[in-house]
Amino acid sequence: MFRATKRPSHSADVGGFRIELRRRAEDSAALRALTRICPSACFRFGESDRIEFSSENCTLCGTCRRVCGATGEIAWFAPERIGAPARRLA
Ligand code: SF4
Q: Is residue 5 part of a domain?
């Protein structure tokens, strides 16, 4: 099991959901694969060959959540209800 840092390095609010990229010391193969398989090209290689996340064209397809489910590098949070904290989705 991979462990991600607690603080997100990139996060975005999309359609009420929050998607966070939680960096590890090195990007996993699964995270790197998202540069090829995210249908909206939200992931790209940035400085020092690290993965950058931009939600600009995200369609909430869920691919990143499934592909990185085991690494913990992508976290999704359900829309906040009034007065309730955001709830992390599995
Ligand atoms: S939900 Fe789909 S479109 Fe949005 S960032 Fe993840 S893989 Fe890309």
A: no
* Domain annotation covers residue 82: no
Tens of pLDDT, residue by residue over 44-73, are 999 999 999 998 899 999 999 999 999 999
Residues counted in the chain? 90
Tell me the torsion sign for CA atoms 43, 46, 52, 57: negative
In a domain? residue 83: no
Q: How far is CA 80 from the centre of its chain?
A: 18
Whole-structure pTM value:
0.81
Q: What CATH number has the domain bearing residue 39?
A: 3.30.70.20
Q: Ligand 1: does its nearest atom lie under 6 Å from the Cβ of 59?
A: yes
Residue nearest atom 8 in ligand 1 by C-alpha distance: 38
